[in-house]
């Protein structure tokens, strides 16, 4: 049903209540008002904004006043006629579901409104109640008392795109405001752009048209028709309202950037934050970027903040709506908030528009120290700014202040005032003008559970129901602005129902969830209102509460230590409870390290289901950080095994020499994890911090401490911003035409070269038949060779293949020193040294020589140039080399990198741009062959895992990239991977995407099973406890209540306990199966047939190795697979067996030497034993011998008791120095 028909039914008395669905509240009110006027209906509008700002008592009176106005309106409309002839009114309730929801409805509002409706009904006043909602989903959330009244529902588009409907509306409005004197003929063409007019804009256009038409009316004309000239004149002046101050102001009064000297930094930031939003709105929408909707200029008086705001309006071409304090402050309750809401509503109608409020601190101060009006205004402007964030209108809120510290912090959270720009004093140059520095973490993590060799790293999102990651009983979470670690207490292992690992996992999951509340502004939670001053202690407390709620529901027992850090601007805030650790490293020095919280040695503070500790006991720290600082978080498995000085040294080894913020945090976590486990597994020779503390406490302990190890590293770097100057919209048709034109030009050029070849060279007497074959293959490189073979013969084919093949780089390291063309990088001063060596075992001392790493725990960087630049477009690219990990590598790389011509060998390091990277990478159980391509400035890793050869023998690695964008990876001349580059790398966006317009039907049921509604929990089920006192337990005879406390029998599992009751599941009769989202073509997808093509000029090794000794050899880069195979046969295949024999001989020699050394040591021990034997004195016995014999029986008895005592002593020792979490 259309809105006109619905209101017509109201006028005829056929409807008492209806619903209107329209996303734009203003359009809804305007449409109802215009059509009601045509039908003779009076409209009484109930505005939700005005209602909700009053107190409950005022609300009740206000609603009754609205009812009284409805009575007055209907009486006025009927002229106090008899009740049967009374005129009807429409009571329009705007955004009804917001204040009469199904849940938590305000009873005083609901009761007052229902009472008013009953009064109208009893007095016989005819009316129709029209309830407005922004969507049908909102309508369903309305209170049933009102929803049940609705007799019909009409849906109105926020912007009517039909010119036919617009003509009908415009005709009605013209007739209403002119008294039927102005008519709109059907032959008059409406401007196409008017199809986007809102209701308010339609009324404005109608008034302008009527004014123009009536001005030319003659006295004898009863009706005047609108002409095309009238519409054209009005359309040309569209938007030139009295409110358009920026455009309407005289030219000489407008301010531009040229009128403001200096402040280049501020201008650039305002241009990025505000002007680009208006000028490049399509680019923002296409890229899915949410631009800032609020910008704050702050600084001392007289620095030109207002002047800059006016320049922004002029430069952007947007309206400039200047708000003044007198316009916003009113004496009546609620009027100030209405004025503020009206200003934002006006800005939306005038979009694109900039709202500017100077001296914002005068009205929007901190709510805890200001009056009631200030608090209401802060709430109102926060609501308006939130609405801007989700609104598509191009409106930006720009404010200025001299005292930013006085503003309420809720306004400065993301999504409201996103950017704060400081404007320094005039004359302080641009260095005094800067943006408040904002930082974030560049993160990495690694961990190993106790007794496991599996390295745990962050899984891809969506693979777990938890946002945290579990490492044994440890867990952690990471976000760009926060991270945390927790260590589940191990002492629960013997308690039924206890799961410390799950308890710690939930703790970190809920901490992550609490931080997410600051991202989603739709979450209504007053505990997280202040983004800037968030405390990690508060986050820990809320997470602890949610974990315990789960524990009570799931009957979970456990406890954990926890450490949470949050980064706000340049401030790192830390909350720690227990023995987890944090260290901040700057410039190879630790600037901060926390102390562990211990009740006693090896007994940390902890949060748990029955813990006496609480988040209030947590340590709180605040550290000022700067760009390049490195934050290390870890459980006690790290800090109990690795000394602080070692951590700093390991971090320093992996830190970029000049730019720490460019370092790789993953390398740091891997190295720290490796060192911690290395110490933990050594209980004889290693020294550890745990050993040191144990000795200080009076316990004997040797070596590291075996425990779960979790390491997080976050490098402080500036928050990433997008430079829209580099984002340019490319029309797809122009793009395709340009590519087609380029291809056509290349084809014509190739045809011309073919003609020249045929005319001038093909008939030369010195050119052989093979020469012509070679020329043919060079001219048509993409023609399959076997198609040409029958024409020229097999011999000619082979000749052509060999003649066209070219080798661009080949290296066998035949000399005893590193060849001069290999250049060691000077980017770092501590790069490892290279040497040429055949290694400890080899097939041939000369042939097996290769480039070998020689120093442990070092970076290596060395490179060499090609003989000539290799452009592999339309050619096959082959990269092949051998690597021998004779040191039995535990963690390190063995890959090559191929670089473009614009490459400086002396600056070569891990940040250097390369075309491709290929080869093995081994670290613990993580073993793979890397195949990485650089495409459009981004490195793309292969999406599958290729196992490398990881023993101590030489292995040959071959990569083949073909012009048809397929690839092959060969290991020892056997294929281990192949396929399409488009399928095994994510170079391009997907071809199809889920249709954003499609959504699952509301009535779709995808739950296969449901709880049986007939199943009933047996009586007394929950009365059965999970554990009971052991009836067989006996109180020890030596138990002392004063010393040992009151004795309680140990608890055992209750055999009668059946666990929590759950209703049985039955098949869902409404189940429809899983809903499949329809797919559409991705508009962002564009095919690219040149992904494989590179221009390469250098090859090199950029590695990190814990243990050195890897030998690289027999490197070749060519465009022929056959050439590479021939080279491999010559340098690799023929020496495989000989190398195995050499390795077997070396192993046998080492084993024989070991046996000889062992035998020698055993002989020496036997001699020492003989020297220690006591001398005899014939058959005589000395007195002490008789005494020994006399005590033999006693010693035998003591000996029998010794195993028991030793066992008790061993248990005591374990109790003193065992796992750090064995006590609660």
From TrEMBL:
Chief location: endoplasmic reticulum
Protein name stated in the entry: PPM-type phosphatase domain-containing protein
Any single Pfam family the record assigns to this protein: AAA
PANTHER family attached to this UniProt entry: CALRETICULIN, CALRETICULIN AND CALNEXIN
Keyword Endoplasmic reticulum: yes
SUPFAM superfamilies in the cross-refs: Concanavalin A-like lectins/glucanases, P-domain of calnexin/calreticulin, P-loop containing nucleoside triphosphate hydrolases, PP2C-like
Segments of skewed composition (Basic and acidic residues): 1153-1173, 1189-1224
Keyword list, A-Z: Calcium, Chaperone, Endoplasmic reticulum, Lectin, Metal-binding, Zinc
Residue span(s) of domain PPM-type phosphatase: 453-716
Family of this protein: Belongs to the calreticulin family.
Span list, region Disordered: 733-769, 1011-1040, 1153-1224
Location of the protein in the cell: Endoplasmic reticulum
Parts forming coiled coils: none
């Amino acid at each position: 049903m259309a809105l006109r028909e619905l209101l017509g039914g109201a006028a005829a008395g056929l409807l008492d209540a209806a619903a209107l669905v329209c996303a734009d509240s203003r359009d809804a009110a305007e449409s109802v008002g215009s059509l009601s006027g045509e039908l003779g209906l009076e409209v009484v509008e109930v505005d939700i904004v005005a209602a909700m700002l009053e107190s409950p008592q005022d609300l009740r009176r206000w609603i009754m006043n609205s009812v009284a106005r409805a009575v007055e309106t209907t009486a006025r409309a009927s002229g106090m006629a008899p009740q049967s002839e009374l005129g009807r009114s429409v009571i329009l309730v705007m955004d009804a579901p917001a204040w009469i929801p199904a849940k938590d409805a305000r009873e005083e509002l609901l009761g007052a409104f229902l009472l008013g409706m009953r009064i109208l009904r009893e007095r016989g006043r005819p009316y129709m109640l029209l309830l407005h909602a922004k969507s049908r989903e909102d309508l369903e959330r309305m209170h049933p008392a009102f929803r049940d009244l609705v007799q019909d529902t009409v849906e109105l588009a926020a912007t009517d795109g039909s010119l036919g409907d617009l003509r009908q509306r415009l005709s009605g409005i013209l007739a209403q405001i002119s008294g039927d004197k102005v008519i709109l003929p059907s032959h008059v063409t409406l401007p196409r752009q008017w199809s986007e007019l809102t209701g308010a804009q339609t009324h404005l256009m109608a008034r302008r048209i009527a004014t123009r038409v009536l001005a030319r009316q003659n006295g004898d004309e009863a009706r005047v028709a609108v002409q095309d000239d009238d519409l054209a004149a009005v359309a040309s002046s569209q938007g030139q309202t009295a409110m358009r101050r920026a455009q309407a102001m005289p030219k000489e009064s407008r301010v531009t950037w040229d009128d403001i000297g200096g402040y280049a930094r501020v201008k650039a930031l305002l241009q990025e934050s505000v002007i680009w939003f208006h000028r490049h709105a399509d680019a923002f929408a296409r890229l899915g970027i949410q631009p800032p909707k609020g910008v704050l200029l702050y600084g001392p008086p007289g620095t030109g903040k207002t002047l800059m705001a006016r320049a922004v309006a002029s430069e952007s071409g947007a309206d400039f709506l200047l708000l003044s304090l007198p316009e916003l402050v009113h004496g009546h309750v609620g009027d100030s908030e209405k004025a503020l809401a009206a200003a934002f509503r006006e800005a939306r109608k005038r979009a694109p528009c900039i709202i500017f409020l100077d001296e914002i601190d005068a009205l929007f101060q901190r709510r805890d120290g200001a009056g009631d009006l200030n608090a209401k205004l802060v709430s109102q402007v926060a609501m308006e700014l939130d609405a801007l964030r989700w609104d598509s209108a191009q409106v930006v809120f720009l404010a200025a202040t001299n005292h930013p510290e006085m503003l309420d912090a809720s306004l400065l959270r993301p999504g409201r005032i996103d950017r704060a720009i400081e404007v320094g004093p005039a004359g302080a140059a641009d260095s005094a003008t800067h943006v408040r520095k904002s930082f974030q973490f560049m993160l990495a993590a690694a961990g190993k559970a106790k007794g496991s060799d599996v390295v745990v790293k962050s899984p891809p999102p969506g693979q777990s129901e938890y946002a945290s990651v579990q490492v044994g009983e440890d867990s952690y979470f990471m976000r760009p602005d926060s991270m945390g670690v927790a260590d589940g207490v191990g002492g629960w292992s013997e308690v039924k129902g206890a799961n410390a690992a799950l308890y710690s996992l939930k703790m970190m999951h809920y901490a992550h969830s609490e931080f997410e509340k600051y991202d989603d502004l739709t979450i209504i939670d007053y505990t997280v209102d202040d983004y800037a001053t968030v405390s990690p202690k508060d986050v820990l407390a809320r997470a602890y509460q949610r974990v315990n709620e789960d524990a009570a529901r799931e009957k979970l027992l456990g406890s954990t230590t926890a450490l949470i850090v949050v980064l706000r601007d340049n401030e790192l805030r830390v909350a720690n409870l227990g023995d987890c650790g944090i260290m901040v490293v700057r410039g190879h020095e630790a600037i901060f390290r926390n102390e562990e919280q211990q009740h006693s040695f090896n007994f940390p503070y902890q949060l748990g289901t029955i813990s006496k500790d609480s988040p209030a006991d947590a340590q709180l720290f605040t550290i000022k950080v700067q760009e390049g600082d490195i934050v290390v978080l870890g459980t006690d498995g790290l800090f109990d095994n690795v000394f602080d000085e070692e951590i700093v040294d390991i971090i320093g080894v992996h830190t970029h020499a000049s730019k720490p913020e460019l370092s790789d945090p993953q390398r740091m976590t891997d190295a720290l994890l490796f060192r911690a486990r290395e110490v933990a597994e050594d209980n004889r020779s290693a020294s550890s911090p745990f050993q040191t503390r144990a000795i200080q406490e009076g316990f004997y302990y040797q070596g590291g401490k075996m425990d779960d190890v979790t390491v997080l590293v976050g490098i402080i770097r500036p928050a990433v911003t997008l430079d829209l100057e580099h984002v340019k919209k490319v029309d797809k048709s122009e793009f395709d035409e340009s590519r087609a034109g380029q291809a056509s030009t290349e084809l014509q050029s190739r045809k011309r070269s073919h003609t020249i070849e045929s005319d001038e060279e093909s008939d030369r007497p010195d050119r052989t038949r093979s020469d012509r074959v070679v020329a043919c293959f060079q001219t048509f490189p993409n023609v399959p060779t076997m198609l040409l073979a029958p024409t020229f013969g097999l011999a000619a084919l082979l000749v052509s293949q060999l003649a066209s093949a070219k080798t661009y780089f080949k290296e066998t390291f035949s000399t005893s020193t590193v060849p001069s063309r290999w250049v060691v990088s000077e980017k770092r001063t501590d790069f490892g040294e290279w040497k040429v060596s055949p290694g400890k075992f080899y097939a041939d001392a000369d042939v097996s020589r290769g480039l070998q790493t020689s120093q442990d725990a070092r970076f290596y960087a060395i490179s060499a140039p090609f003989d000539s630049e290799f452009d592999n477009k339309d050619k096959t690219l082959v990269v092949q080399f051998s690597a021998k990990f004779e040191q039995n590598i535990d963690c390190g790389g063995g890959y090559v990198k191929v670089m473009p011509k614009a490459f400086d060998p002396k600056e070569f390091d891990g940040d250097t741009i390369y075309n491709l990277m290929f080869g093995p990478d081994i670290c613990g159980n993580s073993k793979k062959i890397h195949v990485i391509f650089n495409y459009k400035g981004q490195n793309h890793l292969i999406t599958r895992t290729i196992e490398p050869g990881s023993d101590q023998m030489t292995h040959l690695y071959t990569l083949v990239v073909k012009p048809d964008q397929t690839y092959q990876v060969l290991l020892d001349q056997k294929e281990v991977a192949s396929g399409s580059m488009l399928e095994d790398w994510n170079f391009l966006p997907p071809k199809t995407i889920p249709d954003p317009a499609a959504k699952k039907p509301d009535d779709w049921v995808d739950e296969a099973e449901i709880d049986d509604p007939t199943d009933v929990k047996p009586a007394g089920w929950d009365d059965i406890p999970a554990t009971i006192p052991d009836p067989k337990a006996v109180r020890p005879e030596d138990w002392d209540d004063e010393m040992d406390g009151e004795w309680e029998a140990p608890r055992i599992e209750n055999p009668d306990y059946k666990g929590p009751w759950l209703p049985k599941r039955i098949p869902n009769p409404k189940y429809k199966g899983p809903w499949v989202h329809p797919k559409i073509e991705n508009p962002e997808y564009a095919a690219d047939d040149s992904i494989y093509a590179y221009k390469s000029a250098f090859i090199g090794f950029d590695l990190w190795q814990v243990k050195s000794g890897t030998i690289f050899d027999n490197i070749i880069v060519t465009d022929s697979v056959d050439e590479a195979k021939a080279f491999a046969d010559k340098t690799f295949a023929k020496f495989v067996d000989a190398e195995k024999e050499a390795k077997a001989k070396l192993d046998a020699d080492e084993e024989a030497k070991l046996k000889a050394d062992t035998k020698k040591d055993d002989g020496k021990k036997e001699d020492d034993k003989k020297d220690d034997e006591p001398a005899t004195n014939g058959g005589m016995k000395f007195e002490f011998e008789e005494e020994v014999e006399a005590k033999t029986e006693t010693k035998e008895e003591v000996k029998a008791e010794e195993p028991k005592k030793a066992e008790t002593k061993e248990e005591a020792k374990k109790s003193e120095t065992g796992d750090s979490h064995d006590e609660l």
